[in-house]
Design brief:
alpha/beta, 474 residues, 12 helices, seven-stranded mixed β-sheet, GMP Synthetase, Chain A, domain 3, Rossmann fold
Length: 474
């Protein structure tokens, strides 16, 4: 993998504060590399990176790579017990952070000194670990996905081919850099396409002023999670400048109803994307059309899909667990060979997602195996119920989950967020559902909530939602 300095894009750190060029990023990276080597960075070791989105973040990232180490990218807002737990498990050689007193390992908060010349090209061995991204376990057993430079290069090249370098000319960064969707799909894809990454002031007001941000910064591309758009619809008028050329939405299920609202607001092609940290970001994407259906993610961007049915056999079409082969596949889970072996089989990755794969390779997701509700022998996918409920004109969001039932084993429960100023009777909701879907998937337990529980990646947290609501009844 080679990164020539003159092909790296620029960082627009904050509005009206100018640009930081790719040459400046790599010059600073060389200084970071020297400081990190002094702190123990070397091939085969992690170096933690916990900075807010900034030009310094990317200079430090490139510096970690120049030092030969693997960047363990972490949320700067982790609590003290979480930091202790992760560092104990991952054993990073050092941390890049502005908070030296908060980490139990050596911290490099500024590289110090200067270098006379930045590297004009960064070159890496393809199998060398490049990124380590935490997917769960900040307080328990951490689950850290390790990606090679080869996986990153394959995924970023596929992203650029699918999106187009011209569309990536000005990208608005709306997501955290501590997970793959934000770091790989948005930031690194844009920079390695030669585009400008616009870093707005972080905080909850970002979706509330999205339209004006897009116009003021002539944004051409952005990617986000479905929950982000609920705030946008409430508070932000759409852009009017005509610069927005493409929008991606991913990391959580997207219903056709929600998809259409985003497309109407953005007035440009909006793609429902499918991917996970283990595959270094997106493996499929489908644009919104009138023929779109809930869960449609389209054809593979790079690689191959198959499904595994009840017989355990892999098939090129049909319904079952989605498995895939891709050049963007992870090396494995750090220090977890059994967990790695359970999902990687003969070069195929078992996603845990249930999907319908057409003979032409088009994929539609219908649920998650682990979230499946067993209602007296009838299998109910929570995402299917979510998508049904979110077509109701007075329901903004839904989060479906299973609850214990003495007769059927499990019953279907739903937490719903209602439109402002509306109220619905549970009997009305059940009747509305029965007119549109089979009886088995209609919830028997209803909860009206102000907001649904979500993971830090924007996905519905069904376990957390169930625990919160059931404990509140005690």
């Amino acid at each position: 993998m080679e990164i020539p300095a003159n092909t790296i894009g620029s960082i627009d750190c904050r509005e009206n504060q100018g640009l930081v060029s790719g040459n400046r990023l790599l010059t600073a990276a060389a200084t970071w590399s020297e400081a990190l080597k002094d702190a123990g960075a070397e091939q085969g070791r992690f170096v933690g990176l916990a900075l807010q989105p900034s030009a310094e973040f990317f200079s430090a990232l490139f510096g970690i790579w120049q030092a030969g180490a693997c960047a363990l990218v972490l949320d700067p807002g982790l609590s003290a017990p979480e930091r202790e737990n992760i560092c104990r498990f991952a054993d990073p050689a050092a941390m890049v952070s502005t908070e030296a007193d908060k980490w139990p390992v050596p911290v490099v908060d500024s590289p110090g000194g200067t270098t006379k010349h930045g590297q004009t090209v960064m070159q890496f061995f393809s199998t060398t670990p490049a990124l380590a991204l935490l997917t769960s376990g900040t307080t328990g057993q951490p689950k850290i996905v390790v990606l090679s430079f080869a996986a990153l290069e394959a995924r970023i090249r596929a992203n650029i081919d699918a999106i187009g370098a011209s569309t990536l000319s000005r990208t608005l960064q709306t997501l955290s850099l501590s997970f793959g969707h934000g770091l790989i799909g948005s930031a690194l894809t844009t920079l390695l396409a030669g585009g400008t990454l616009v870093l707005p002031q972080p905080g909850p007001v970002l979706p509330m002023k999205l339209g004006s941000l897009i116009d003021r910064n002539a944004i051409s591309f952005m990617t986000s999670v479905p929950a982000f758009w609920h705030v946008v619809f409430k508070a932000s008028p759409p852009p009017s400048g005509g610069s927005l050329a493409r929008v991606h939405v991913g990391s959580a299920p997207l219903s056709k109803t929600h998809w259409k609202k985003i497309a109407d607001w953005a007035d440009c092609p909006v793609f429902n994307c499918y991917g996970m940290t283990e595959t270094a970001n997106w493996v499929a994407a489908a644009p919104y059309t009138d023929q779109a259906v809930d869960g449609l993610v389209g054809h593979s961007l790079e690689g191959e899909f198959a499904v595994v049915g009840g017989d355990g056999c892999r098939a090129p079409s049909g319904t079952g667990e989605v498995v895939l082969r891709t050049s963007g596949l992870m090396i494995g889970y750090h220090k977890q060979p059994e967990a790695t072996g359970s999902v990687l089989k003969d070069g195929w990755y078992r996603t845990g997602d249930v999907g319908r794969l057409e003979p032409d390779g088009r994929l539609t997701l219908v649920g998650r195996q682990k979230e499946e509700i067993n209602r007296a022998g009838s299998k109910v996918q929570p995402v299917e119920v979510d998508q049904l409920l979110e077509t109701h004109p007075d329901i903004l969001e839904a989060c479906t989950f299973g609850v214990p039932d003495t007769i059927g084993g499990e019953a279907v429960a739903a937490a719903v967020v209602l439109s402002c100023g509306t109220s619905l009777q549970k009997q009305e909701l059940a009747k509305w559902c029965l007119a549109r879907a089979r009886k088995e998937i209609v919830p028997t337990h209803w909860y009206v909530v102000d907001e649904v529980c979500r993971t830090d990646r924007g996905k519905p947290d069904r376990t957390g939602q169930r625990k919160k609501l059931l404990e509140s009844k005690k």
